Amino acid sequence: MGLVEVREKRAPRQKNTRSSDKALEIGLYVFAVLMLIVLIYPLYFIIIASFSEPAAVANGQAWLVPKDFTLAGYQELLKHSNIWIGYRNTILYTIVGTAIGLVVNISAAYALSRKDLAGRKYFSLLFIFTMFFNGGLIPTFMTIRDFHLYDTFLVMVLPFSVAAFNIIVARTFFQSSIPEDLWEAAQLDGCGNLRYFMTIVIPLSKAVISVIALWTAVGHWNSYFNALIYLKDTSLYPLQLILRNILVTNQMQSAMGTGEAAAIALRLANIMRYAVIIVATVPIMCIYPFVQKYFNQGVMIGAVKS
After folding, report:
1. Residue 129: which H helix or E strand, with range?
2. How far apart are CA 43 and CA 51, in angstroms?
3. What is the distance, to the nearest Å, from the Cα of residue 191 to the centroid of all Cα atoms in its chain?
4. Distances (CA, A) of 150 to 82, 92, 142
5. DSSP one-letter string for 205-251
6. Chain Cα centroid distance, residue 217
7. For residue 52, how many C-alpha atoms fall within 13 Å in the half-sphere facing its CB?
């Protein structure tokens, strides 16, 4: 009888535990859905606002579906032929800059991860130091000018290719995910440093390489300040700078104009505002699904483990 009573007492507790776990799981799902809505809605709003009249957007009428559907923003934006030049330049800057960034940062990270590198800790401190302190805009400008990189294609992809944060993330990945036994086995087979790095380390590091590539590509795609400072040839302008100039020009025309002309210029400036965001962000967003499966793994392993 004693065992029966104990079992009867334990059964309600198990049911209560299961019920509380189920309630917690439901609560987490609800919270996750709410957070997803909070994160996605701004992008969704920009999309529907780009197809709506500016007056409807300003009055809060276009919050769920487009109001007074129009393609005027995209039509006006595509009238500027230099947009295609900007697309071409940005794609080239992104591809070449990402390739250079990967070669430089991944190689430096692997070198810093090797225990047999003389002065490894001091080199690491030097890289970390550059994350918090730099020479400033004017010395950087003078350096780029003296190296004859000003107003050239290389100024957008070469001087800023080293990213200390990316190097630290990749170095931590190599230290925590590449067994030292592999290097010892490779040495027994007569494998040198370069061959070991190219044939063994690189294939095993797809996760962190994909993450670094995505970060670098997004940085190059969104970059406009460097072009604003170091480029004066409009044929070298990236897409972001061209779109900025288009918006600034329309806003100035609306501010300087009078009467109906000013109203038309203001309407075009407002309706192009959201179209510009879509044109600038959609292409780079299409890359994310191809590296998403490596993204979480690379970030967590490279940034958390030591």
Report:
1. helix 120-132
2. 13
3. 36
4. 21, 18, 9
5. GHHHHHHHHHHHHHHHHH--HHHHHH---GGG--HHHHHHHHHHHHH
6. 7
7. 21
Sequential pLDDT tens for the chain (306 residues): 454 454 555 555 566 667 777 888 888 889 988 988 888 888 888 888 888 887 777 777 777 788 888 887 788 787 878 888 888 999 999 999 999 999 999 999 999 988 888 888 898 888 888 888 888 889 999 999 999 999 999 999 999 999 999 999 899 889 888 888 888 888 888 888 888 888 889 998 888 888 898 889 988 998 889 999 999 988 999 988 888 887 777 777 666 666 666 676 677 777 777 888 888 888 877 777 776 666 655 555 545 444
- The whole-angstrom separation of Cα 235 and Cα 148 is 18
Distance of alpha carbon 168 from alpha carbon 179, whole angstroms: 18
Angle at 9 between CA 8 and CA 10, to 5 degrees: 95
> 237: which 2 tokens?
């302008």
Map tokens 């996760």 to a residue: 207
- Residue given tokens 């019920």 in the structure block: 19
- Choose among 157, 281, 292: nearest CA to 226: 157
Q: Cα-Cα-Cα-Cα dihedral of 189, 190, 191, 193, to 10°? A: 140
